[in-house]
What we know:
Elements: H1 4-15, E1 58-59, E2 62-63, E3 67-74, H2 77-93, E4 97-104, H3 106-119, E5 125-128, H4 130-138, H5 160-164, E6 167-168, E7 171-172, E8 175-176, E9 178-180, E10 182-187, H6 188-194, H7 205-216, H8 232-241, H9 257-265, H10 267-272, H11 279-285, E11 298-302, H12 306-313, E12 320-323, E13 338-339, E14 342-345, H13 352-364, H14 366-372, E15 378-379, H15 382-385, H16 392-403, H17 419-435, H18 440-455
Parallel strand pairs: 3-4, 3-5
Antiparallel strand pairs: 1-2, 5-14, 6-7, 8-14, 9-13, 9-15, 10-11, 10-12
Helix pairs in contact: 2-14, 9-18, 17-18
Amino acid sequence: MFSFRRAIRLTAAIAxxxxxxxxxxxxxxxTADPTTGAEATADETAQETxxxxxxxxxxxxxxxxxxxxxxxxxxxxxRAELYNQALEAFTEEYPQIEVNSTFxxxxxxxxxxxxxxxxxxxxxxxxxxxxxxxxYAENGLLLDLGPFLGNQINTDNLTEQELGIGVVDGQTxxxxxxxxxxxxxxxxxxxxxxxxxxxxxxxSWEDYNAWMAEVSQAGDDLWGGPDWTGRIQLxxxxxxxxxxxxxxxxxxxxxxxEDLKAFWELGSEIRENGAVIPTQRxxxxxxxxxxxxxxxxxxMSWDNFGAGYIADLGIEADQLSIVAxxxxxxxxxxLYLKPSMLxxxxxxxxxxxxxxxxxxxxxxxxxxxxxxxxxxGLPASESQLAGVELDPLSQKVLDYERSIEDRxxxxxxxxxxxxxxxxxxFRQLGTEIGLGTMTxxxxxxQFFSEMEVILNS
Length: 457
């Protein structure tokens, strides 16, 4: 299969491009996503998977010493059963490696990791979230996987861009499991019901604003979309279209108060002409978004949010479309792939080579792809993707990511420590602007004041 990822890899090789440093906060949202399962699920029951221990057996990586590894992940009973099957397959390939696994819900998972980090007892291998990567890597808690790349960890099925996503300060702190990208979702069923045309994707922000205004004139309690200036991810895309990420790799902001003021002021016209759902109306239907409540035809988010939208709306996959968001500069590479989740290894592991083999299996194995499907998102590795039987929604996501190949640029640096707090503050201030309880100037001043505290803490 000659996929878009292979095309990226070949293009990168021809151009002589280097591995890239990356960055998104999970793309946060309030809608749970059963496709990737990358949210805070509630089951805290720990489960174990054990394989036989036979010293000196040979696996695909040659002779491997016996070891017992501790592996931790977040999820629910469904994901736990999938990991049980995958770890059983791993120990069949490496019977000399025993794996004990435990899982918790997302918040509890990180609470426990913080306790373990303080005591120097992190699990050997961990499912990892992008928003925590810099914090743990810069504190020396994660093993540099660089020496294992091309050895215990096969890199043939990952692009240089994908491998660069786990790099912090020049060291490979983690390897991505799956990918997603920013996208524009549309409710085809609602558009048909209201007799409006859907947005074709791409184009300029002026094009998108004009389309939203037309949709909003089609009926009561219907709008084209939400106020897109309230999300930091859209500010990021706006800045990237003009050639700059939000932060440098050293964590310094690359935008000014004037940049942010200009961006937030872009929302004034679409709020005043009724093109977007009023912020007050959005607050009334929370925790659903206006899109999830079938009040808007479109909404932008990470492309792994599709399953949550389908669940909220009670529609089929073929009634949900995914197209590229508008851009501030035609021909720019403002979009990028980010990891739904990653795998990392503790810096204090007694078994670095065996841990690397486990990471390789969970990321690259076609058998693991057959087992997990898209539970952890669309596999980044071509070999693992080959084992996945895609459902209609996952196929749409894959087709979407292929369609934006020419618009994918270098991902930003790994999120700075505290990025999640900055992201939430941006959302809160955007809401205040939309409600009219704060001016743009006041919001800009407060945002920079609080960002400075976070960056210097």
